[in-house]
């Protein structure tokens, strides 16, 4: 072990000495001397308490800044300069003169250029190419620095030569002057009346850059509590404070139609933003929430960021958040949760009564599987084992599979869906694969959005619509689906992604099935 010494004494013998015991043995004078040797390094402590020097003389009077500066200048002028060890003589170098070292000579080759051994055909083509053709070739090869921006983009768009020539200097183009945004012409009073009257045509309202009074905020948020049509509300740069934000939070706890809300560039504190994020957990209808650039909360602080993160992790409907997080932990956790909430490809299994004949299959139930970890074999195995155990007790059998892609209008099953359905077909030969066309989903369904594919003779074949029926009848089923979509019942669905994160969530969706029935 390396010895440690201070003024010739070993320091190892002081390792077990208690500092508090040493301080109790010091006198008041010794403690005062010790305190002068230690700088507390506390920026909140006044400077006269931090400095080692303490003047014991009494003040001679109030501080006169001008008189103090004049006195300092007078002392500086009257104090003689320190004599130089070597007197200054013009033209004489005092001390050793610095001579820069000789720069090393770098050997260069006679041919500094880069030579290419091209075939005669390529050399002839490049030698006879025009400047426009060379620009196009450079754009294809990605040589952005060999041309200016106008040349590059013009070559991509097959336009004529723009700007400088081929030998010109590469530089950015002058930005185009854009016109100023016109002022907001919305009448706040008329807009508040429309919200209060629940106007079916008022789906989006923009109050941006309108200086609203507290009374207008309170009336707007009071009307918002019972509104069922407004979906987008923008209140950027309207002068909102914590008082009015509390009224908005109470409205958000009662309103279920609002999807997007923008509160940027206001005067809401970090606690106010936490209160608003917490209010989104009641209805879980908000999909986009923006509240950055607050005048009083440029930085939220660790406690507020952790609270916001916990509330967002409990929210399954929020997909976009406009907030600045200073700490990486909060930022990464929020990003992970939002990624989970974004719509993805979903899948599930279809159940039929046990003992169904080979001619007709009647699906009586559906169990959602995943929306995030679609192709993980261990999770899929756990889910299918639990579903199979439930089917045995309920007199059901896994007789089909459904798949909905995250791409709009995509109607082809992926490799995972095909393999799962082929495995189901081994135990239930008439198993069907139901594909969902999300382009046809709307709040007013007029036609079926499903397509049925069956595995036969080693191929997937689409069944005609005449070969399957929706019970009790197609019109009643479409009306039921339209009603469920309007009420956003789908947000309460629990699949095995949710269940494996929290085993208290019911993957059978018993409460939800009672609403559907």
UniProtKB/TrEMBL annotation:
It is found in: Cytoplasm, Cytoskeleton. Gene3D superfamilies: Ribonuclease Inhibitor (3.80.10.10). GO terms for cellular component: cytoskeleton; EMC complex; myofibril. SUPFAM superfamilies: RNI-like (SSF52047). InterPro entries: EMC8/9, LRR_dom_sf, TMOD. The keyword Nucleotide-binding does not apply. GO terms for biological process: actin filament organization; myofibril assembly; pointed-end actin filament capping. This is EOG090X093U. It comes from Simocephalus serrulatus.
């Amino acid at each position: 072990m390396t010895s440690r010494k201070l003024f010739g004494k070993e320091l190892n013998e002081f390792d077990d000495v208690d500092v508090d015991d040493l301080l109790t043995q010091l006198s008041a004078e010794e403690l005062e001397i010790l305190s002068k040797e230690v700088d507390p390094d506390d920026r909140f402590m006044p400077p006269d308490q931090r400095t080692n020097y303490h003047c014991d003389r009494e003040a001679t009077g109030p501080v006169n800044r001008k008189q103090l500066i004049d006195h300092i200048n007078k002392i500086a002028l009257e104090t003689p300069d320190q004599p130089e060890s070597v007197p200054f003589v013009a033209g004489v170098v005092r001390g050793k003169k610095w001579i820069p070292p000789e720069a090393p000579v770098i050997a260069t080759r006679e041919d500094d250029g880069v030579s290419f051994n091209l075939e005669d055909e390529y050399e002839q083509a490049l030698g006879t190419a025009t400047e426009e053709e060379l620009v196009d070739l450079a754009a294809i090869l990605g040589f952005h620095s060999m041309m200016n921006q106008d040349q590059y983009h013009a070559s991509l768009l097959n336009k004529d030569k723009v700007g400088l020539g081929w030998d010109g200097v590469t530089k950015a183009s002058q930005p185009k002057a854009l016109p100023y945004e016109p002022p907001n012409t919305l009448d706040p009073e008329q807009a508040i009346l429309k919200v209060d009257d629940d106007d079916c045509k008022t789906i989006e309202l923009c109050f941006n850059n309108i200086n609203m009074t507290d009374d207008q905020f309170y009336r707007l948020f009071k009307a918002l509590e019972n509104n069922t049509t407004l979906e987008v509300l923008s209140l950027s740069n309207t002068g909102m404070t914590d008082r009015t934000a509390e009224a908005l939070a109470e409205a958000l706890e009662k309103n279920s139609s609002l999807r997007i809300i923008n509160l940027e560039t206001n005067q809401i504190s970090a606690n106010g933003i936490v209160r608003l994020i917490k209010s989104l957990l009641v209805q879980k209808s908000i999909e986009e929430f923006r509240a950055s650039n607050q005048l009083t909360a440029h930085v939220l602080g660790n406690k507020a960021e952790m609270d916001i993160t916990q509330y967002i992790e409990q929210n399954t409907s929020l997909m976009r958040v406009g907030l600045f997080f200073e700490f990486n932990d909060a930022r990464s956790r929020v990003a992970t949760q939002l990624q989970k909430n974004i719509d993805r490809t979903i899948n599930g299994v279809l159940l039929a009564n046990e003992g169904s004949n080979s001619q007709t299959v009647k699906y009586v139930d559906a169990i959602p599987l995943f929306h995030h970890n679609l192709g993980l074999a261990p999770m899929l195995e756990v889910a299918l084992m639990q579903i199979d155990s439930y089917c045995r007790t309920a007199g059901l059998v896994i007789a089909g599979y459904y798949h909905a892609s995250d791409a709009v209008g995509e109607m082809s099953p992926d490799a995972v869906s095909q393999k799962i359905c082929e495995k189901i077909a081994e135990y239930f030969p008439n198993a069907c694969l139901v594909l969902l066309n999300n382009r046809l989903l709307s709040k007013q369904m007029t036609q079926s959005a499903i397509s049925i594919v069956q595995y036969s003779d080693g191929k997937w074949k689409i069944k005609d619509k005449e070969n399957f029926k929706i019970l009790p009848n197609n019109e009643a089923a479409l009306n039921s689906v339209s009603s469920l979509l309007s009420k956003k019942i789908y947000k309460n669905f629990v699949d095995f992604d949710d269940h494996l994160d929290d085993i208290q969530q019911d993957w059978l969706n018993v409460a939800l099935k009672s609403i559907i029935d």
